[in-house]
Amino acid sequence: MISVEHLTKHYGTFTAVDNVSFTAATGRVTGFLGPNGAGKSTSMRIMVGLTRPTSGQVTITGRDYRELVNPGLEVGVLLDASAQHAGRTGREILAIAAQTMGLPRSRVAETLARVGLTEEEAGRRVRNYSLGMRQRLGIATALIGDPQVLVLDEPANGLDPAGIRWMRDLLRGFADDGGTVLLSSHLLHEIEVIADDIVVIGQGRIVAQGSKAELLAAAGTLVRTADPAEQDRLARALHEASVVTTPIDGGLRADADPELVGETAHRAGVVLRELRAADGAGLEEMFLELTAETAREGAAA
Amino acid sequence: MTTQIDTATQVPATPAAVAAAAPAPRRVVRPIPMTRLVGVELRKMFDTRAGFWLMASVGIVSVLATAAVILWAPDSAIDQETFSSAIGFPLSVILPIIGLLSVTSEYSQRTGLTTYTLVPWRGRVITAKVIVTLAIGVASMFVALAVGAVGNVLGSAITGLDPVWNVTVQEFGQIVLANVLGMLIGLTLGVLMRSSAAAIVGYFVYSLVLPAALGTLAAFQSWFADLQPWVDVNFAITRLFDQTMTAEYWQQLGVTTLVWLWIPLAIGLRAVLRAEVK
User: Fold this and answer.
1) B30 vs A69, A84, A93: nearest CB
2) Do A70 and B30 make contact, defined as CB atoms within 8 angstroms?
3) Residue B118: which of A26, A27, A97 has the nearest Cβ?
4) Residues of B with CB below 8 A from A25's CB?
5) Are A204 and A46 within 8 A, CB to CB?
6) What is the DSSP secondary-structure string of A234-298?
7) What is the greatest pairwise CA distance in chain B?
8) Could you tell me which of A75, A79, A84, A72 has the C-alpha nearest to residue A50?
9) For A83, which of B48, B50, B114 is closest by C-beta distance?
10) Has residue A96 got a pLDDT over 70?
11) Which residue in A279, A259, A278, A271 sits closest to A234, CA to CA?
């Protein structure tokens, strides 16, 4: 379990992280979502002791990171897949990590296989790696000590769709085995595919957090009428049932479950073409909405 | 935390689930010993092409310098001291750069992100680097001594004279000390600059520009000539190579290294411990 309590980091007058508190629970994948420059990486660097917080604290399985006697065996960390000596081979980088943690050499080959890097690829120097290969190597470094907690900054960056699915299955299995996973992304889609819980951050502040199911439920129902002219009538009927609606590309998003919306449409005699939980679209809208006021675009407007 | 998981997996009554629910022995995590960190840092000195050739250059330079003495030095100058100073000069340039890069590559190549998350006590990492750097420095001196001895035997055989062994143990000790101090100056610049390019530039200012400037000042300003040994760290260190050290010389070495080495090193170490790693 990772527990972040009232974390704040100032750089001069700039506040990179502003009173951030959340918990990444055991057995779950927690997604740390936010636009670029929102404070995700700074928060993660503080978690693993690379940056000192101005105030607040982070505990990992109840302890400060610096209290861990051999951190690689307890917390797997990937902060930047490109932060490697370009002149070392992938195998050598993993071997250094294994030696530091005091692991047998055999673990290197096992872990390379686990992340899908071939022997030939492992023998190449990292300067010749694609970003996707660097991510796999970084994940291998995080996994090699067989830790109970993973802290991964933008791990899906540079992975192709098959790679993202592989990562999802890997992290799912890790969490199901009782591990804790915290991963960050600036892409809602990645987080949605991989995470159980979501923490949304914008300009250093947490703007929303909860389980994916909760946040999806909050996103409501997407409904489209068969005849576009009927949409206003449905909207009125929903308002009478005290349901708030928002027009969204040729349909309505209603803050109610699909059953209530369907029932209201039936009573109003409106024929529907589409009625479903506004999962992806709703969450995306929420993400944009929640971050709009704090994101760069919002600040410029 | 683990109990929660155990109860969750106990629910399905399949044999596999029972096996999984059996209390797994909690792994004993042992602290990382210093010897292991030294081993890791030593490995990192050799495992890139650049690093390997930098280390190999110690041997290569020794052999080239020895060959040059045999080829071009007059017969009367073929003695152990000539060989040792011919090898010693280029090594005194290379060794500090080895020390400096061992620190700065963590920042310039950004490997510090991994190094300092696996070992969050940066003081221990730097200590390991200092131990490795000094060990390499001392080992290089013995390589140089051996190559120089072979050169002396060969050179004497060619001239037909008896080999002259005129480097005493104390002189060799002084040369080792001079090179160790040079490497520590390299490390100091490394921890202060934390960037390979900046530290190398800083090193050349330290070892080439400053001595020339101070030497010129001493040559033209008589008031400074007496002061130079107390101010110029290179001047004080260079005397270790070829002079019998007097008490005053040792004092001057102490004063100059305090100002140019020990205090900056302490400031740099403090900065490394506190600075954000990005």
Assistant:
1) A69
2) yes
3) A97
4) none
5) no
6) HHHHHHHTT--EEEETTEEEESS-HHHHHHHHHHHTPPEEEEEE-HHHHHHHHHHHHHHTTSHHH
7) 95
8) A79
9) B114
10) yes
11) A271
The highest-level CATH class for domain A2-210 is alpha beta
Whole-model pTM?
Answer: 0.84
pLDDT tens readout for residues A187-206: 888 888 889 999 999 889 99
Residue closest to B265 by CA, chosen among B185, B183, B207:
B185
Q: What does residue B42 show for φ and ψ, rounded to 5 degrees?
A: -65, -45
Amino acid code (one letter) for B81? E
Q: How is chain A split into domains, by residue range?
A: 2-210, 221-277
pLDDT tens-digit map of B122-139: 999 999 999 999 999 999
- Close Cβ partners of A95 (under 8 Å, ≥ 6 residues apart): A105, A108
Tokens 């791990």 belong to A155
Confidence of residue A279 (pLDDT cuts 50, 70, 90): low
pLDDT for residue B16: 42
Name the one residue in this structure whose structure tokens are 């935390």.
B1
Give the side-chain half-sphere CA count within 13 A for B138: 7
CATH topology for the A221-277 domain: Alpha-Beta Plaits (3.30.70)
Question: Among all residues of chain A, which has the CA nearest to that of B43?
Answer: A96
CB contacts, 8 Å: B278 with chain A: 45, 50
On whether ipTM exceeds 0.85, the answer is: no
